[in-house]
């Protein structure tokens, strides 16, 4: 049964579960995810605009002892002369010119990555690292309600669309198109719609 616990359910399988089993599954997945994230050599958080990483380094470390390379599609970080602590490909491109790093109290390095695309959540910082479930993200520290109504509507729509995509179901835009098509067909029942092409 243990292997069943770690099996990732598809959206269809998940939606078919009774609420009680869904909650238990969510709890297990969240615990597994938390353990995977805790094992990483850095901590990270994100907003729709950016990703923040923080890495502990030996106390007394000086900026010139650090090796930090921030590229559009990759990130490398470590102490000079030692193996890199972080080294890999980013899941999405970033704006190099707006991304930066700083050393605080000679023991904590903070890396700020400015996302190029401002309307999607990252499942991980490096493509080789374990993923988080982006459908469970509640934006800006659970304060969706604090966002201006237009922004909140946009974020909620994006989250809904992302979930639909993962389930292989139509997004809100595709549903709108289907609705418009259905109305056209109702208004013009004598037209053979199978031969009509839309651009």
TrEMBL record:
A Pfam family: CS
CDD domains to which the protein is assigned, alphabetical: p23_NUDC_like (cd06467)
Location of the region described as Disordered in the Swiss-Prot/TrEMBL record: 1-32
InterPro entries: CS_dom, HSP20-like_chaperone, NudC_fam
Location of this chain's protein in the cell: Cytoplasm
Domain CS intervals: 37-126
Coiled coil: none
One CC-aspect GO term: cytoplasm
Biased composition (Basic and acidic residues): 1-11, 20-32
Annotated GO biological process: protein folding
GO molecular function, one term: unfolded protein binding
General function of this protein: Required for nuclear movement. May interact between microtubules and nuclei and/or may be involved in the generation of force used to move nuclei during interphase.
Name of this protein: Nuclear movement protein nudC
Organism in which the protein naturally occurs: Tilletiaria anomala (strain ATCC 24038 / CBS 436.72 / UBC 951)
């Amino acid at each position: 049964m243990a292997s069943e616990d770690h099996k990732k359910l598809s959206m269809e399988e998940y939606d078919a579960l009774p609420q009680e089993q869904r909650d238990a599954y969510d709890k297990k997945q969240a615990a597994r995810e938390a353990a995977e994230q805790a094992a990483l050599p850095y901590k990270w958080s994100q907003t729709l605009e950016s990703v923040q990483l923080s890495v502990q380094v030996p106390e007394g470390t000086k900026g010139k002892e650090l090796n930090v390379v921030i590229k559009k599609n990759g990130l490398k970080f470590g102490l000079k002369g030692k193996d890199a602590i972080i080294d890999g490909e980013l899941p999405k491109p970033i704006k190099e010119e707006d991304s930066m790093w700083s050393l605080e109290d000679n023991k904590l390095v903070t890396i700020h990555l400015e996302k190029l695309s401002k309307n999607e959540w990252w499942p991980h910082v490096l493509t080789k690292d374990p993923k988080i479930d982006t459908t469970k993200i509640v934006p800006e520290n659970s304060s969706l309600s604090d966002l201006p109504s237009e922004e909140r509507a946009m974020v909620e729509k994006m989250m809904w669309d992302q979930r639909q995509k993962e389930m292989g179901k139509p997004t809100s835009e595709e549903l709108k198109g289907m609705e418009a098509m259905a109305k056209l067909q109702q208004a013009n029942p004598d037209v053979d719609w199978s031969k009509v092409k839309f651009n």
